[in-house]
Design goal:
- The structure is a homodimer.
- The first copy, chain A, has about 180 residues and is mainly alpha-helical.
- Chain A has a domain at about 55-175: Tetracycline Repressor, domain 2 (Orthogonal Bundle), CATH 1.10.357.
- Helix content of chain A is about 70%, strand content about 0%.
- In chain A, α1 (about 10-20) packs across α2 (about 30-35).
- The structure holds a DNA duplex (30 and 30 nucleotides).
- Chains A, B: It comes from Terribacillus halophilus.
- Chains A, B: Pfam families: TetR_C_33, TetR_N.
- Chains A, B: One of its GO terms (molecular function) is transcription cis-regulatory region binding.
Chain lengths: ~180, ~180
DNA sequence: ACTATAAACTAATACCATTAGTTAGGCAAG
DNA sequence: CTTGCCTAACTAATGGTATTAGTTTATAGT
C-alpha cells in the first residue's frame, strides 16, 4: 500500500484550521482536499463521509475548549472565570467553537460537563439540583455566545459587564 | 404581466411550512419551488436570493413565537410561564424555531425582547441591570433549547424539572 | 387591439457530496 | 529479488445545491 501519509488526525486538523480561518461553512470535502493537495474522493478512504469528519472535528475542538477552560476552577471566582474563558474562546475562535458543537457524547464532552460541575462545587448541591444547575449554567453560557454570534445583542451595552452581572445573578440564585 | 399569483408572503409561508414539516435544512430553492409547482429561477423575481427568503421567514417565525408567548406575562409566575412556553414552542416546532433565529433586527425581534422585559418587570431593575438580566434570561432560554435539540442533555433527569429549577435560580438571583 | 411590463420559463455555470471503477505504490511472502 | 496483494490515491460520473442570462408569454393599461 502507498504509505499512509494521510492520517485521520491530519485530515481532522486540516478541517479544523479551515473552520478556524474561514468559518465552519468552509468545511467541505472539496476545501479539505484542496488544503491537503489531494482529490475529494481520497478522503473516503479514511472517513465514511463528511459527517464523520465533523464528528472527529467536534471531539478535537472540545479538547481544545477543555484545555483552554481547564484551571479556571482553581481561581477565587471559579464560575466567573469559567464563564469569561468560555465566552472568550467562543468569540475569539468562532469556527472552532462551532466545530465543537455537533458531538455530544465523546470523552471531552463529559470532561466539559465535569468542568462546569467543578465550578459549581462550592455550592454543595445534591445530585438532582447539581444536574439542574449544570444544565442551567451551561445553557446560559452557550446561549450567550450563540445569540451574540448569530443574532448579536444590538444595544451598545458592554458585553463583558452583561456576562459578569448574569453570572452574579446565577450565583446569588444558587446561594439563597 | 401574468397575474402575480405568487406573493412574497405565499413564498415565505410555503418555506415556513417546509421548515416546520421537514426541518430547516429542507428549506432550499428547489424544495420551495416544488411546493409551489414552479421552477426555482422564478423565485428570483420575488426575492434576491435564498438568504432574503430566510430573513422573511425569520420575521414571520418570530411573529408566531411572539404570539405564542404573548400573554404569559399576565400570569402569577411570568418568568416561569414565559420559559415554559418558549421551550415548549421550540421543542414542538423545531423547524419554526430554527427559522426564527437568523433575524436579529426586525419588528418582532424587538417585541420578543419587550416580552422578556415584561416578565422581569416585578424586579424593578434599573436600565443597565435590566438589559443584563434580559440578555441573561434570553441566553438561558435559547441555550437550553439549543443544547437540547442539537447536543441533547444526556442524563435521564427530567427536562421540565431542570427548567423550573433553573428559572428558580435566576429569579432568586434577581431578588437578592 | 396593441404594447410594455414582468412573471414565468429553459439552459447554463459552478459549486457541493458521494459512488464506482481504475491505477499504482509499497509491504510481505516465496 | 521478484511476485502478488492490498489499499490509497486517482478519474469519471451522478445527482444535488444556488444562481445568472436570456427568452417566452400572459396580462394590464392605453
Amino acid at each position: 500500500m502507498p504509505r499512509m501519509q494521510l492520517t485521520k488526525t491530519a485530515i481532522t486538523d486540516t478541517a479544523l484550521s479551515l473552520a478556524d480561518q474561514h468559518g465552519y461553512e468552509a468545511v467541505t470535502m472539496a476545501n479539505i482536499a484542496r488544503s491537503l493537495t489531494i482529490k475529494p474522493p481520497s478522503l473516503y478512504n479514511h472517513f465514511k463521509n463528511l459527517e464523520e469528519i465533523k464528528q472527529a472535528m467536534a471531539e478535537a475542538a472540545q479538547k481544545q475548549l477543555y484545555d483552554t477552560l481547564k484551571g479556571t476552577e482553581q481561581t477565587s471566582q471559579p464560575m466567573l472565570s469559567l464563564a469569561k474563558a468560555y465566552v472568550n474562546f467562543a468569540s475569539s475562535n468562532p469556527g472552532l467553537y462551532a466545530s465543537s458543537l455537533p458531538g455530544g457524547n465523546g470523552e471531552y464532552a463529559n470532561a466539559l460537563v465535569r468542568l462546569v460541575a467543578d465550578a459549581l462545587q462550592a455550592y454543595k448541591l445534591e445530585n438532582e439540583k447539581m444536574i439542574h444547575a449544570i444544565r442551567g449554567f451551561r445553557s446560559m453560557l452557550h446561549g450567550f455566545v450563540d445569540l451574540n454570534t448569530h443574532a448579536g445583542f444590538k444595544l451598545e451595552v458592554d458585553l463583558e459587564a452583561s456576562l459578569e452581572e448574569v453570572v452574579g445573578i446565577f450565583e446569588r440564585g444558587l446561594q439563597s
